[in-house]
Each structure stands twice: as C-alpha cells, then as structure tokens.
Amino acid sequence: MSTVSNDQGFSPDSPDGSRPETIDDKSERDLSVLVQAPPLGAQPLDAEGDKASRPHGLLQYFGVRSAAHDAELDAIATQPSVYDKDEVAAVYLPHEKYEGLSAFDPLFRWTWREEFAVVRKIDYKIMIWVGFMFFSLNIDRGNLSQANSDNFLEDLGLTTNDFNLGNTVFLVSFLLAEIPSQLVSKRLGPDRWIPGQMCLWSIVAGAQFWLNGRSSFLVTRALLGVLQGGFIPDNILYLSYFYKGAELPLRLAWFWVSDSIAGIVAGFLAYGILHLEGYGGRAGWRWLFLFEGLLTLAIGVASFFMMPPSPTQTKAWFRPKGYFTEREEKIIVNRVLRDDPSKGDMHNRQGLSPKMLWKALTDYDMWPIYAIGLTFQVPASPPSAYFTLSLRHLGFSTFQVNLLGIPITVVGMFTLLGITWSSEYFNERALHGLICQAWCLPFLIIEYLDAGTLGNWAQYGVIGLLLSHAIQVAWGSRISNSVRTRTVSAAAYNMFVQISNIIASNIYRADDAPLYHRGNAVLIGFTILNCCIYAFAKVYYILRRRYRLRAWNAMTPEEQQEYLSTTTDEGNKRKDFVDFVH
C-alpha cells in the first residue's frame, strides 16, 4: 500500500515547488502532467468521511484501533476525483476569488493519520463552538415555554389564542428574514453576520424583563423572529466550508443535540431562576428572560473572536498562529474540493444575485425536500409548545414541570443520534424520516382516544414518548451540488419549516382545551400525510438517479468530454450529477 511523507505536495510549475498565484496560471497548465502525479489512496474500511458513522469508524475516532488499522494510518488518504483526469480537470478548477485558492493543489497528498487528526481538530475548533452558538439560540427561543410554567400568560393578561398569535408573529418574522439573512451572510461572511445576529437578539430577549402586556409581547416576538431568521442555514453553510458531504449529517445531528442540551440546561436554569419569584417585586419569569438574555449576549460577543472566516483565514491579531498549520489548511481545502468541486465556485464574501436566488428557488429537484420541510414537524410541534401548560393542567407545580422536561429531552437526544447514525450507516434518508413519523402516530392516537382517562403520570409518559422522536437533518445539502443552490436551498428549506410551525401553532385552540381532541385528529392526519410524502420523495429520487445515469451513460466518451468542456449547467442540473440521495 502506498504511503506518503509529511512534505509531499508540490506544484509542477516551478522548480522550487512554489504555488502559482492565480487561477489563470492553473488553467493554462498542461494538465497532462497529472499522469505523473503522486499515487492516490485506496479508501480503508473505516475512512472517516464516507463511512464516518459506522461502528468501527466511530471507535477509531476515540482512539480504539486494531494493529492492522494502525498500519493503514500512514497510507495515502487522497481520494480520486475529477482533478486527477487531465481531460476534465480544468473544468472543475476553483473560482479565481475562492478564498482557499492558495491552498488548492491537485497534486497534494496526505495520509489517513493526518486526515483523521485534522477532522478531529475541526470538530474541536469549529464544530463545538457552532453547537455552543446553537445552544444559545435555543436558550432564548425556548424560554417562553419555561415562562409559561410560572403564570406568564396570567401576569400579562394573555389568553391561549394570544399565545398562539405571538408564536405566529415570531414565526412569520423568522420566515420573512430567512432569505435576506442568507444574502447578508453571503455578502458579509457568516463569521461577521452570525455573531452580530446573536448580540442583537440577545438584547431583545433580555428586554422581555420589561414586558407589560399584549402589545409589548407581540413586538418582542416579531423582533426576535427577524433577528433569529437565517441563523440555522447560515451555520449549516459555514460548516460545509470545513467538512466533506458525508461528514456533515452526523455533525448536524450533534448540532441539533445542542438543542436538546439547551433544553436540559434551560430546565435547570429555570428551576433555579424562577425561585427569584418576588425578588425586587418582579415575577420569576422576568428574571428568567433577563439572565438568559445576558448569557447569550456573552456568547454572541465571544463568537466574534471564535469564528474564522474559512479554513485558510484563521489567523487574527488575537490568534496570530491561527487554528491550523499551512499543511492542515491544504488538507482541509483539497479534501473538501475533491469531495465536492462545487464548493470552490464562489468565495465566502460573495453575494447572491436575484438571478441566482431565482434559479435556486425554482430548482424542482429540491421541491420534495421543501415539501417534507413544510409538514414533517407539524405532528409534534403543538404538543411540544403546550408541554408545560399541559403539565400544569395535570396538576404539576412550576418547578416539577421544568424538571420533568429534562428526561424527555435526553431521550430525544439519543433517538436523534441513533436515527442519524443509522441513516448514514445505510446511506438512506426517506425511510428513516418515515420511521420518525410512524413513531409519533400511536401516541397521537392515544392522545385522541384516551387522554381524558389517563392518569397524570401516564399522560406525561405518552406526551414524553411523542416528543422524543428524532428530527430530520442535512438532506438538501447533498442534492444541491453548488454553493449558491446550497446557500439558498438551506434558507428555503428552513422557510418551509417555519411555515409548518405557523400551521402547527394554530392547531391547538382555546375552545378545544385542555384535551385538544380536534387538534390531535388534525395531527394524526398530518402524520399520515407525511408518511406519503416521504414515500413519494424516495421514489422520485430513485427515478431521477436512474434517468440521469441512463442519459449520461448513453453519451459517448467524446460527447461527455465535449459537455464537460462547454456546459453552462450548474449544480444538480449538470448531466454528470447523479447523487440524488434518498
């Protein structure tokens, strides 16, 4: 098996191995020299990236390896790609303004030992902090539920329908801010925009300490929606700069695990802070909003210093050595581009034009994903939003309610990781989504038929099992196949999710309380609909893949080469794109 030394990686353009300065130099290169390129690697059984979530891959991540595996670690990790084919390599060269261009080198080679070390370093330096930022989002986004356990509605003179209206205002504002936020993020860079968002919404979240009625409640809901809109797809796009496509879903599962962790921490925080009831003549829920707003503001300020713009731009006046060595930067850039050359077609501070936006939104191959986003969360959203109110109606105290939410969150965290692991292991998406819907169905039926006859703890168990289902992560990114489509499709998908939340927030109504028989019947209908949509998406992407493969294989090698050299097709509309994951 071929191995590579740590200094292997050179440019054929100059005798001293220096890198060409412009993409034009690369384009003019005689690509036939690639025939003489250093050898490529064969993928080992547990290569992080393509089989990252398999059991042996997970064990090796934590240092549990066999002797045979240790011997493989010094093998070449550089995987074959279009850059190794001299007849098509020039077609896929990165854009001249791509921020990682200086580190791009199709002749560069590295070992599995180096790649695993770099991925682990990215996890520690980038992924953990992104999860921490998402944690702060969910602290401020979810504390309304804890406030409800402390007579929030009664203190402000609000009804259940006012609460629904507030949620709707928040979600509409969140929805309307999605695409503008993505456009601003692409222009300024997520490393600037995301921390700015966090600081602004934290100020508004803390200002809820001074709420005095329905109007102020609705205004703060609207402001929070506007300022938090786009945060999730911004972060997903940011992570795609550092990770290969197959590595992202499991990382996004951990990204969403931070949501569960936020729920656990928020439960304990609420339990403590709500004991300030009456301090300074203020209700406990007011102190909850203030303290948690200050906490997330501190995280937002720190994020300005923790988020580098890209893998090759980690150095700053306060971080003179950066996160990565020059060699590590080359490994990150080349492994990502070899996995997905489309990630080099824009730079990280390039805005999206209206034409780009329109092309992304009219990408019909993304529509099944958008349809799923529109409905898949509906069955569990109303029970989740009304969880604390439901437990209060069952007779549990304010403090019991906040602690009882913790076990459910923990179970949900493990089901999320389990479903995501299984999805990556079997490289399957739609059936796993259908399983999550099937999980909800029996508990909704019990809620519809027998909720009035269940005891307090039995009712808590049914609601808890309903809310511990896994959520869907990272499907659309794999089908987009271009930065511009990936950028807007992430925002568009999240917009459909917010529309689903708007629908869900108006299913449980005051005249249907407290058992919500009518509402639960609607949720059962949505669950059945979701199963049908997942089945349709599965069939659609299977047929699309077969059609594209048949059309591409019907072309002669000369026709394929001519197409690759002259095509203006982009993203998943390229005839050579067949990765319609399902």
Automatic annotation (TrEMBL):
PANTHER family: MAJOR FACILITATOR SUPERFAMILY (MFS) PROFILE DOMAIN-CONTAINING PROTEIN-RELATED, PERMEASE-RELATED
Residue segments, region Disordered: 1-29
Stretches that traverse the bilayer: 253-274, 286-307, 367-389, 401-421, 457-475, 487-508, 520-543
Domain of life from the UniProt record: Eukaryota
UniProt entry keywords in alphabetical sequence: Membrane, Transmembrane, Transmembrane helix, Transport
Coiled coil ranges: none
Record-level GO cellular component terms: membrane
Biased composition (Basic and acidic residues): 16-29
Gene3D superfamilies named among the record's database cross-references: MFS general substrate transporter like domains (1.20.1250.20)
Record's keyword annotation contains Calcium: no
Amino acid composition bias (Polar residues), ranges on this chain: 1-11
InterPro entries found in the cross-reference section: MFS (IPR011701), MFS_trans_sf (IPR036259)
Protein's UniProt name: Major facilitator superfamily (MFS) profile domain-containing protein
Membrane topology, record value: Multi-pass membrane protein
Compartments, record wording: Membrane
Pfam families per the UniProt record, alphabetical: MFS_1
GO function term, MF aspect, one: transmembrane transporter activity
